[in-house]
Amino acid sequence: MASALEELQKDLEEVLLEKSTRKRVRDALTTEKSKTETEIKNKMQQKSQKKQVDNEKPAAVVAPITTGYTVKISNYGWDQSNKFVKIYITLTGVHQVPNENVQVHFMDRSFDLLVNNLNGKNNSMIVNNLLKPISVEGSSRKVKTDTVLILCKKKAENVRWDYLTQVEKECKEKEKPSYDTEADPSEGLMNVLKKIYEDGDDDMKRTINKAWVESREKQAKGDPEF
Question: Domain range holding 34?
Answer without folding.
Answer: 4-43
